[in-house]
């Protein structure tokens, strides 16, 4: 992959690298409108849960204090209270509606786009990813995890790859996702994307990255023995730099179609793609 590494040299250095950090308490900074909305919904739901928790704990504390046997030696024999039963039925229904409306709005918003500027096809394999650019000449390439001895000083272990997915900033990108063998899941937290890749089916989602940077993710569906070793690296660059990279990548990858894994022997284990690298 020396030639592929040379292609990355034309891309500018990026200051933002979205990846997990020690003792992280919240999600990674949002890099797309979808992730920003997910963060907003998460914060909204968190406050609702805090309110419910405070209310329930307050009612329990009041009940323990008010109906202690010293203050209430003769307990009430009442078994029904129709107005109260109506209230504690209506309030949860109202809470569910308050939660459901923004949730469904977000689900439809993040599902797919009708006005994409470009399309990228993502294919999951055991245990690596391949990417194709049908709107830019149809070239494609594979993306393998880097071994520890291949890492640059600032690259994270188990997340850096030899050939990242390169996307332009501020462009609506349609993602078509599928798999060649088993179910995988293409997940990049900072982009707000987590979509299963299913053999024989094409899933669709979209991203629009707002800031240049390097965004890391991983396969999030248990897919075999090397499931933990198929990371995702997305490098977002300005449009002019993306067009420069496309010209170089088209020449390098136009006739290098992603390899098709060999069929397993009858009754034998599936081939290990990493060993063929």
From TrEMBL:
Membrane-spanning intervals of the chain: 41-65, 86-110
Region (Disordered): 257-277
Reactions catalysed according to its record: 4 Fe(II)-[cytochrome c] + O2 + 8 H(+)(in) = 4 Fe(III)-[cytochrome c] + 2 H2O + 4 H(+)(out)
An example Gene Ontology CC term for this record: plasma membrane
Comp. bias (Pro residues): 258-277
PROSITE patterns assigned: COX2, COX2_CUA, COX2_TM
Main location: membrane
Cofactor, how bound (note): Binds a copper A center.
Signal peptide: 1-17
Pfam families in the record: COX2 (PF00116), COX2_TM (PF02790)
Function: Subunits I and II form the functional core of the enzyme complex. Electrons originating in cytochrome c are transferred via heme a and Cu(A) to the binuclear center formed by heme a3 and Cu(B).
Family: Belongs to the cytochrome c oxidase subunit 2 family.
PANTHER family noted in UniProt: CYTOCHROME C OXIDASE SUBUNIT 2, CYTOCHROME C OXIDASE, SUBUNIT II
Protein name: Cytochrome c oxidase subunit 2
